């Protein structure tokens, strides 16, 4: 992760029409450490209470991530994405979320692309997500394949949730 408090613009993007106005929305992608109150508000807006119920652990998770990218609309955190990686063989997309009022505007796509940019040479990029048709559509549009769809030699994925 980058130095806390540093706000380095990565790129600006356009995300279609803003829900509040008819003008196109422009957002900035940064690799800064977002303020915890902004992070909590964004995670809460998508109902990820497992994260918001323990802000200290969420803060440690963000700080311990290999790469964090945030989309900003001015001073409003639109969404973060973070990757955990060894930098050589695997890059795991842990979180990507966008304010619910701004879905389907290309922000999530750009967040995922920017989150994986430092890991372009890494062959194995993985994630776990909800069993939801919109999630499947989003990730397959980004080139991901569900493990049960890989052939002819199937890949198996396992997960263990403790406590």
From TrEMBL:
Record domain N-acetyltransferase: where: 24-162
GO molecular function: acyltransferase activity, transferring groups other than amino-acyl groups
Signal sequence, renumbered to the chain: none
Origin: domain of life: Bacteria
Pfam families assigned: Acetyltransf_7
UniProt cross-references to CDD domains, sorted A to Z: NAT_SF (cd04301)
Chain intervals for the UniProt region annotation (Disordered): 1-23
Listed Gene3D superfamilies: 3.40.630.30
Biased composition (Basic and acidic residues): 1-17
Keyword tags: Transferase
UniProt keyword annotation of Secreted present: no
Protein name: Acetyltransferase (GNAT) domain-containing protein
Organism from which the protein derives: Micrococcus terreus
């Amino acid at each position: 992760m980058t130095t806390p408090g540093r706000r380095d613009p990565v790129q600006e993007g356009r995300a279609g029409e803003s829900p509040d106005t008819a003008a196109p929305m422009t957002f900035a992608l940064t690799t800064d450490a977002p303020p915890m109150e902004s992070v909590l508000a964004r995670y809460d807006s998508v109902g990820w209470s497992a994260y918001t119920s323990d802000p200290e652990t969420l803060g440690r998770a963000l700080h311990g991530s290999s790469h964090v990218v945030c989309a900003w609309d001015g001073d409003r955190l639109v969404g973060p994405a973070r990757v955990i990686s060894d930098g050589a063989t695997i890059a795991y997309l842990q979180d990507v979320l966008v304010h619910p009022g701004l879905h389907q505007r290309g922000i999530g796509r750009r967040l995922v692309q920017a989150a994986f940019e430092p890991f372009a040479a890494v062959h194995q990029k993985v994630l776990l997500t909800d069993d939801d048709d919109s999630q499947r559509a989003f990730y397959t549009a980004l080139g991901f394949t569900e493990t049960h769809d890989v052939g002819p030699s199937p890949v198996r994925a396992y997960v263990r949730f403790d406590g």
